[in-house]
């Protein structure tokens, strides 16, 4: 969409056992490529393990290198709703732009994302919808002047209802309850001889694998199909540092302790049938 070309994308190395950028490597890259305009896309909550880049350190680098800092906070950004987990997003204020999905942890229907920018006039210059019948867009930009879309649904309404209904405290409770459940499931998995927890449970995702020598992606999918076909839970496949893995993501406002028992029962049933033995 941006026309920058795939060759302009550079993947940064992550820290060991982490999905967070190695800041030294990033600094080295910036030092060597200072002559080029550059956007650093940082993560506030990776898809696999909800890892966070050191946003504070990246923000500090902005003082020396003139890059644009975009933060993908699709669901990890909601850590800001809880005093317990707010530290994960420290340094977010350095961002030039941030994206967050309302259809993830805000529990509103697809497709409602939010974007924050420090450069609205630049955005309007890029996306302005110049047509006489739409009026002047730069002075008073409408949504169609700020995104690639012209016509759009009233996505903001369900998001507004949700915020209005639950408020700050409601979202703090939702986040903290989901994280507690994820941590409890993580503990059960860590204690089980049948599964391996692949990363610490930082927020709402448990990333784990079935314990099996030479586990392949097909075997992983076979286990997931057995698990999901029970109709009690739905978990998704991934690959974490080369290992076929499973993501159990908590985000629904109604998920409770009672569901944790259901989840564990479903996992136990699926693993017994997978190993063809009673567990
Ligand atoms: C961290 C992160 N960024 C971006 C996305 C893209 O989501 P969407 O296309 O729903 O905005 C996802 C989806 O899972 C995600 O987890």
Task: Tell me the layout of helices and strands.
Elements: H1 23-32, E1 39-43, H2 55-61, E2 68-72, E3 97-101, E4 113-117, H3 120-127, H4 156-191, E5 195-197, E6 205-210, H5 217-229, E7 236-240, E8 243-249, H6 257-275
Parallel strand pairs: 1-2, 2-3
Antiparallel strand pairs: 3-4, 5-6, 6-8, 7-8
Helix pairs in contact: 4-6, 5-6
Summarize, please.
By secondary structure, the chain is of the alpha/beta class. It is built from six helices and eight strands, in the order H-E-H-E-E-E-H-H-E-E-H-E-E-H.
Note down, in words, how this protein is organized.
- The structure is a single chain.
- By secondary structure, the protein is an alpha/beta fold.
- It folds into two domains: 153 residues, Aspartate Aminotransferase, domain 2; 99 residues, Aspartate Aminotransferase, domain 1 (Alpha-Beta Complex), CATH 3.90.1150.
- The strands form two sheets. A four-stranded mixed β-sheet has the order 1-2-3-4, covered by helices on one side.
- A hairpin with a 2-residue loop joins strand 7 and strand 8.
- The longest helix has 36 residues.
- The structure holds pyridoxal-5'-phosphate.
- Pyridoxal-5'-phosphate binds next to loops.
- The site of pyridoxal-5'-phosphate has 7 residues, from loops.
């Amino acid at each position: 969409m941006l026309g920058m070309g795939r060759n302009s994308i550079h993947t940064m190395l992550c820290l060991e056992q982490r999905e967070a950028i190695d800041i030294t490597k990033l600094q080295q890259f910036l030092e060597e490529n200072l002559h080029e305009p550059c956007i650093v896309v940082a993560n506030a909550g990776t898809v696999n393990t909800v890892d966070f880049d050191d946003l504070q350190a990246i923000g500090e680098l902005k003082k020396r290198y003139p890059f644009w800092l975009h933060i993908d906070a699709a669901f990890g950004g909601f850590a800001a709703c809880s005093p317990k987990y707010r530290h994960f997003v420290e340094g977010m204020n350095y961002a030039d732009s941030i994206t967050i999905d309302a259809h993830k942890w805000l529990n509103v229907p697809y497709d409602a994302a939010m974007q924050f920018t420090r450069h609205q006039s630049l955005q309007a210059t890029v996306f302005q919808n110049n047509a006489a019948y739409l009026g002047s867009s730069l002075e008073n930009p409408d949504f169609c002047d700020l995104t690639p879309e012209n016509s759009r649904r009233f996505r903001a309404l369900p998001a507004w209802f949700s915020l209005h209904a639950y408020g700050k405290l409601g979202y703090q409770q939702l986040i903290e309850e989901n994280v507690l459940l994820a941590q409890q499931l993580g503990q059960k998995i860590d204690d089980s001889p049948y599964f391996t927890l692949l990363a610490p449970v930082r927020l709402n995702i448990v990333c784990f694998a079935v314990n099996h020598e030479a586990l392949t992606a097909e075997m992983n999918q076979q286990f997931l199909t057995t698990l999901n076909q029970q109709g009690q839970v739905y978990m998704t496949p991934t690959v974490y540092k080369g290992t076929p893995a499973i993501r159990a993501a908590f985000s629904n406002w109604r998920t409770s302790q009672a569901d944790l028992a259901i989840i564990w029962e479903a996992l136990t049933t699926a693993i017994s049938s997978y190993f063809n033995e009673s567990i």
